[in-house]
């Protein structure tokens, strides 16, 4: 375990080991281990996170986490980071996602407008052991499967399918050039064709419907869904508290008296943000002018961090661009993997995402901004919706969930192969399923721990010790 004062970095000249050497550091079978540390207090970790968040939104966060063990797991990245820190690792580092549960995979539109399946949440990204991402993903698969009614045996088989794909893709990547690895990605159309080839054409029907729906999820749709007309003749964000609240309505509670001054400050911030974009994307962005801003509650684990939506209209045609501005705090991995080499946490997220994803959002950038309370905070910026496709995991049966987890496993291997020693990892994993079996065993054990944590969490809510607002 590293101290929090250490710096977590990736280097191209890091030591290269054979699989045999790596197995001496951590036997593949050792990854099955899970025993809670003495004095382990998951709720203390969870509540400590809330101290830096918007206090009136915390009951929504806890309400969403109380919906199910899987929802609790989604919000508990900090808990699992602490749990993973003492577990066996080979010492091979990758640009880790940091929160690679299976709901953080999905489809989105690449700049070439193809729909890509990839990791899509990087709030916790940091150079860290590759095993941590694998265990986070695999345990989430068991929790989701059990929640969907699967037996332990079926849940184990689902994880084994995901791990087998991770191992296969990593071994494939080990035989490829750096350039070929960098260009590799999983297009959704390619994924549909694979599924149809393996299971028949019926498997592609619902996915093709999902892709058509995703292709319509863009800034124009965001404008139609989130805004309404105004006296100024331009659209403004609607007021739907507490999930969507225009900045003009929040201003009095934040002690802001001069909203025009805030607008001017925001316009200056957007100039700073534009400087984090590549020159061609900055040129594109400067066709738009700022119109409105609102606070928007999103997700589960990120509820309570400061998240905004910004509306821009093009200067000539008045077509919309809706950007999301999300607060970036220290990664939950930092106390154990070391601090980011980047001073700005928004930049940490953006640089990690660019390293890890096969294709990233055109408007991915960052800013540091001073709030009405005088505190400087870091943010990253991206499009709110750009072909986003999410899978309803709760609606997946055994076969569908197996294929979904298989896709997640392969995608995670692609991400890790971009920044880690793919040859060493592939050699370590080997041809047999020793590692797969160990991860499946760990996942079942950790899923049981998560259920116990969830029960303790909901008991605190029922006892009135934690305020929660379910159903929002």
Question: Characteristics of this structure?
Answer:
three-stranded antiparallel β-sheet; 2 domains; 472 residues; 15% strand; six-stranded antiparallel β-sheet; single chain; alpha+beta
Describe this structure in words.
The protein is of the alpha+beta class and 472 residues long. It has 2 domains: 14-216 and 390-462, no CATH class; 219-383, no CATH class. Helices cover 47% and strands 15% of the residues. It has helices spanning 19-25, 42-49, 58-65, 69-75, 77-84, 130-147, 152-174, 178-183, 188-199, 202-215, 219-226, 247-250, 259-274, 279-285, 334-337, 345-356, 398-419, 422-429, 434-462, and strands spanning 7-8, 93-96, 105-109, 115-119, 126-129, 186-187, 227-228, 236-237, 244-246, 288-296, 307-314, 320-327, 339-340, 365-370, 376-383. The strands form 5 sheets. The chain has a 6-stranded antiparallel β-sheet with strand order 9-10-11-12-15-14. A 3-stranded antiparallel β-sheet has the order 3-4-6. A two-stranded parallel ribbon has the order 1-13. Helix 4 (69-75) packs antiparallel against helix 6. It is globular. The two termini are 38 Å apart.
- Rg estimate, integer Å: 22 Å
Which segments are poorly predicted (pLDDT under 50) over 5 or more consecutive residues? none
How many DSSP H or I helices?
Answer: 19
Shape: globular
Mean pLDDT level? 94
Distance between the termini: 38 Å
Overall tally of structural domains:
2
Strand percent estimate:
5-15%
- Subunit arrangement of the protein: single chain
Largest sheet: 6 strands, antiparallel
How many extended strands? 15
- Strand arrangement across the biggest beta sheet: 9-10-11-12-15-14
Based on helices, strands and strand pairing, what is the structural class? alpha+beta
In which range does the helix fraction lie?
A: 40-55%
């Amino acid at each position: 375990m590293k101290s929090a004062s250490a710096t977590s970095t990736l280097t191209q000249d890091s030591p290269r080991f054979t699989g045999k050497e790596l197995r001496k550091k951590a036997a593949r079978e050792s990854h099955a281990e899970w025993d809670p540390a003495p004095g382990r207090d998951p709720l203390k970790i969870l509540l400590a996170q809330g101290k830096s968040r918007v206090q009136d939104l915390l009951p929504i966060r806890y309400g969403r986490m109380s919906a199910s063990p899987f929802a609790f797991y989604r919000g508990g990245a900090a808990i699992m980071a602490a749990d993973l820190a003492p577990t066996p690792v080979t010492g091979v580092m990758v640009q880790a996602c940091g929160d690679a549960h299976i709901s953080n995979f999905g489809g989105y539109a690449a700049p070439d407008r193809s729909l890509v399946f990839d990791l899509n949440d990087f709030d916790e990204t940091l150079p860290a052991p590759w095993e941590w991402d694998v265990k986070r993903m695999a345990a989430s698969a068991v929790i989701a499967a059990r929640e969907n009614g699967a037996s332990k045996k079926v849940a184990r088989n689902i994880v084994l399918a995901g791990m087998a794909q991770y191992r296969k893709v990593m071994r494939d990547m080990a035989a490829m050039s750096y350039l070929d690895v960098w260009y590799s990605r999983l297009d959704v159309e390619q994924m549909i064709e694979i599924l149809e080839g393996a299971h028949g054409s019926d498997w592609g029907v619902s996915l093709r419907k999902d892709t058509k729906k995703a292709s319509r999820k863009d800034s124009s749709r965001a404008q139609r869904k989130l805004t309404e007309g105004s006296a100024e003749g331009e659209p403004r964000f609607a007021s739907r508290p507490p999930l969507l609240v225009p900045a003009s309505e929040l201003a009095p509670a934040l002690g802001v008296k001069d909203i025009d001054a805030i607008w001017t400050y925001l316009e200056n911030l957007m100039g700073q943000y534009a400087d984090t974009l590549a020159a061609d994307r900055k040129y594109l962005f400067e066709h738009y002018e700022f119109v409105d801003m609102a606070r928007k509650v999103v997700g589960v684990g990120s509820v309570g961090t400061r998240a905004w939506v910004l509306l821009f209209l093009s200067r000539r045609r008045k077509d919309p661009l809706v950007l999301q501005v999300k607060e970036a705090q220290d990664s939950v991995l930092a106390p154990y993997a070391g601090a980011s080499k980047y001073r700005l946490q928004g930049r940490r997220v953006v640089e990690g995402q660019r390293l890890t994803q096969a294709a990233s959002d055109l408007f991915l950038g960052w800013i540091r901004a001073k709030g009405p309370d005088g505190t400087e905070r870091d943010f990253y910026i991206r499009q709110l919706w750009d072909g986003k496709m999410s899978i309803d995991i709760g609606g997946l049966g055994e076969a569908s969930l197996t294929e979904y987890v298989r896709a997640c496993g392969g995608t995670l291997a692609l991400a890790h192969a971009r920044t880690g020693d793919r040859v060493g990892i592939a050699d370590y994993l080997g041809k047999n399923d020793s590692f797969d079996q160990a991860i499946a065993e760990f996942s079942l054990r950790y899923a049981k721990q998560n259920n116990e944590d969830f029960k303790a969490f909901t008991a605190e809510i029922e006892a009135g010790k934690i305020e929660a607002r379910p159903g929002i």
